[in-house]
Design brief:
The complex is a heterodimer of chains A (377) and B (298). Chain A contains 12 helices and 17 strands. Chain A is α+β, with helices and mostly antiparallel strands. Chain A folds into 3 domains: 21-91, ATP-grasp fold, A domain (Dna Ligase, domain 1), CATH 3.30.1490.20; 95-215, ATP-grasp fold, B domain (D-amino Acid Aminotransferase, Chain A, domain 1), CATH 3.30.470; 229-370, Succinyl-CoA synthetase domains (Rossmann fold). In chain A, strands 7, 8, 9, 10, 11 and 12 form a 6-stranded antiparallel β-sheet that branches. Chain A has a 4-stranded antiparallel β-sheet with strand order 1-6-2-3, covered by helices on one side. In chain A, α5 packs across α6. Chain A is elongated, with a radius of gyration of 26 Å. With 298 residues, chain B is of the alpha/beta class. Chain B has 2 domains: 11-120, NAD(P)-binding Rossmann-like Domain (Rossmann fold); 139-291, Succinyl-CoA synthetase domains (Rossmann fold). Chain B is 34% helix and 21% strand. Chain B has helices at residues 19-31, 57-64, 75-87, 102-115, 155-167, 188-196, 214-223, 260-269, 278-288; strands spanning 11-14, 35-39, 47-48, 51-54, 68-71, 92-95, 118-120, 126-129, 133-136, 145-152, 172-177, 203-209, 231-236, 273-274. A 7-stranded mixed β-sheet of chain B has the order 3-4-2-1-5-6-7, with helices on both faces. In chain B, α4 (102-115) links the parallel β6 and β7 (118-120). The chains are: A alpha+beta (377), B alpha/beta (298). At the A-B interface, α8 of A face α1, α4 and α5 of B.
């Protein structure tokens, strides 16, 4: 789950991480009121994607009239597919230096990693690429978290020793926030040093581990209803789905197998319309729901189902396929490859329903590419 | 010989009485696995599938001498189950559960490393020593005893390779699915080292996928340093677009890391034979252990 800047900053403020004074505005008049109360402000589009500044989604306003005008320009803009419905109006900061502070999971180290850099303000991946020496990292012990001396060492390695007394508590607070929210990523970028010598979180990012959402049922993140409508619908159906740009709908069980099925379709000269993993142990209803989703996609010209049952059972999958083709009156070409647990029962059910399973994944990919390009008889 | 698991291994199942735990324990027993007990808190003193049930792993180990545990516990409780097994001194822990919060796994992994025991998974199919024993969910009927070792990040592709090999008349020593999560127990490198030292394993199939850099690390640190046996490599997700998470939490190409190209290159440089399809993998593994390659085409 992702959050908008103002939602992240509410959590920063509650945790004692300094943020600029700000107000959320949904109309140009509300932005003018904010400028009246706060003085010169930055008007910032609230969308759950990066690159707002370059897209013209962040503008300065020195008077309420200015604020009304720029908010009018920003509200309603489309940034990377998201319509701007809200702007955050924040006291303009006199920034003398931009730092970076963040935490993510380092899969190679199998630990969280705190990252601090004196070169903030831009994409940290770019800094890591061009100036790796400008980035300091700390892998805190996952049981006790970062100790003060480790944090001081991180700060000195980042070349930020003079800011040590202000930075140390910030690093500790950011780590605590990451733990509280099961953050896959939490970032303050830029972490701004202001003319009066204070540090303030000028922008913030937070993404929560989907696996941990059962611990955060009360949280509401960014509205994702403007995502790709099929991806949004898949999310409602609790299906692991990614839209791709081809015409062959793919359903399989297990991420590796589905990825390999996409590769096979491409090898045979087709392009997959999606990645859809029904996961382990899927019941007939899940298969039904997956077929229904793909059948609603106008780009899909044929559907390939590739199942190798371990925890998934062939008969369950077969029931789902048979029920869905009947209920949906499915006329698209459909190729099924099924093997593994309860394979015999599943194949028998399919054959009784007039669906002949393919002999192998490669054969199935070849067949669906032929059928959906109209070259097969 | 084989690695990690034999017919003598004494196996307990955590989450025995649940739907998946029950179904797959029956399969494990049918395969020949020496399952000795189950653990379901609050159900001590009962029996399930003819097995004694204990409240804790420590009790089960004390009474049965178990040395392996298979975990079929729901995600919110699975990391705790892993640590309970490690604290009880279970030497090999196999966690099938999918969807464990990553911070839970980061802690559980550190705990397991401190305890000096081995963890396979989570979010994995487990392992099978062909013809002897299996812990997890690899389908029973696809394995055949032989001399090819398999290590894979993807569950279902593990099955593809095992079945393909068996149909071509090429048997396996042990097949290990290490799991598709970013935070795992045993890595490719660790499993490859075990195969290197196993005299019965004459060739190894390694099935990787996009995301992370474990495949590259294994290529550079193990395969490229005098492995002494043929390694046949395969990477899935070659056509996956960058920035999209492909189901496995670990399968995402971000920046310049995790691409199929980088993994294929590292494997080739280390001297592994890299294949484009599972059929090619099967043929190459058959050839490596001296099976006629025509047998690979059914």
């Amino acid at each position: 789950m992702k959050f908008l800047e103002y939602q992240v900053k509410e959590r920063f403020r509650a945790a004692g991480v300094p943020v600029p004074d700000g107000r959320l505005a949904r109309t140009p008049d509300e932005a003018a009121l904010a400028a009246g109360a706060l003085g010169p402000i930055a008007v910032k589009a609230q969308v759950p994607v990066g690159g707002r500044g370059k897209a013209g989604g962040i503008k300065l306003a020195s008077t309420p009239a200015d604020a009304k005008r720029v908010a009018g320009e920003i509200l309603g803009m489309t940034i990377k597919g998201y319509t701007v419905k809200e702007v955050l109006c924040e006291t303009a900061q006199e920034i003398t230096r931009e730092l970076y502070l963040g935490l993510t999971l380092d899969r190679d180290a199998r630990k969280p990693v705190l990252i601090l850099s004196a070169q903030g303000g831009m994409e940290i991946e770019e800094v890591a690429e061009t100036h790796p020496e400008a980035i300091a990292k700390l892998h805190p012990d996952p049981w006790r978290g970062p100790l003060p001396f480790e944090v001081r060492d991180l700060i000195f390695r980042a070349g930020l020793g003079p800011l040590q007394s202000q930075l140390t508590p910030l690093v500790v607070k950011l780590y605590a926030l990451a733990r509280t929210y099961d953050a896959l990523t939490i970032e303050i970028n830029p972490l701004a040093l202001t003319r009066d010598g204070g540090l303030v979180a000028a922008d913030g990012k937070l993404e929560i581990d989907e696996n941990a959402m059962f611990r955060h049922k009360d949280l509401h993140g960014a509205d994702d209803s403007e995502e790709d409508p099929l991806e949004a619908e898949a999310k409602r159906r609790k299906l692991t789905y990614v839209r791709l740009d081809g015409s062959i709908g793919v359903i399989g069980n297990g991420a590796g197998l589905v990825m390999n099925t996409l590769d096979l379709v491409q090898r045979e000269g087709g392009r997959a319309a999606n990645f859809l993993d029904i996961g382990g142990g899927a019941k007939a209803e899940v298969v039904h729901s997956a077929l229904e989703l793909l059948a609603s996609d106008a780009h899909v010209k044929g559907i390939l189902i590739n199942i190798f049952g371990g925890i998934t059972r062939g008969d369950e999958v077969a029931h789902g396929i048979i029920d869905a083709t009947r209920d949906l009156g499915l006329t698209l070409p459909l190729v099924v490859r099924m093997t593994g647990t309860r394979e015999e029962e599943g194949r028998q059910l399919l054959e009784e329903a007039g669906i002949t399973p393919a002999a192998s994944a490669t054969a199935a990919a070849r067949r669906i590419v032929e059928l959906s390009s109209g070259s097969a008889r | 010989m084989s690695i990690l698991l034999t017919r003598e291994s004494r196996v307990i199942v955590q989450g025995l009485t649940g739907r998946e735990g029950s179904f797959h324990t029956e399969q494990m027993k049918a395969y020949g696995t020496n399952v000795v007990a189950g653990v379901s808190p609050g159900k001590a003193g009962t029996t399930h599938l003819g097995l004694p049930v204990f409240d804790t792993v420590a009790q089960a180990k004390l009474k049965t001498g178990a040395d392996v545990s298979g975990i079929f516990v729901p995600a919110p409780f699975a990391a705790d189950a892993i640590m309970e097994a490690a604290a009880a001194g279970i030497g090999l822990i196999v966690c099938i559960t999918e969807g464990i919060p990553l911070y839970d796994m980061v802690r559980a992994r550190a705990f397991v490393v401190d305890a000096g025991v081995k963890l396979i998974g989570p979010n994995c199919p487990g392992l099978a020593t062909s013809g002897e024993a299996k812990v997890g969910i690899i389908p029973n009927h696809i394995t055949t005893a032989g001399s090819v070792g398999i290590v894979s990040r993807s569950g279902t592709l593990t099955y593809e390779v095992i079945q393909g090999l068996s149909q071509a008349g090429v048997g396996q020593t042990t097949s290990v699915g290490i799991g598709g999560d970013p935070i795992l127990g045993l890595s490719f490198s660790e499993v490859l080292r075990l195969f290197k030292d196993d005299s019965a394993t004459r060739a190894v199939v390694m099935i990787g996928e996009i995301g992370g850099s474990d495949e590259e690390a294994a290529a550079e640190q193990v395969i490229g340093r005098g492995f002494g046996k043929p390694v046949i490599g395969f990477i899935s997700g070659r056509t996956a677009p960058p920035g999209k998470r492909m189901g496995h939490a670990g399968a995402i190409i971000s920046g310049n890391t995790g691409t199929a190209a980088s993994k294929l290159q590292a494997l080739t440089r280390a001297g592994a034979q890299v294949c484009d399809t599972i059929e090619e993998v099967v043929a190459a593994a058959g050839a490596a252990v001296g099976q006629p390659s025509s047998a690979a085409h059914r």
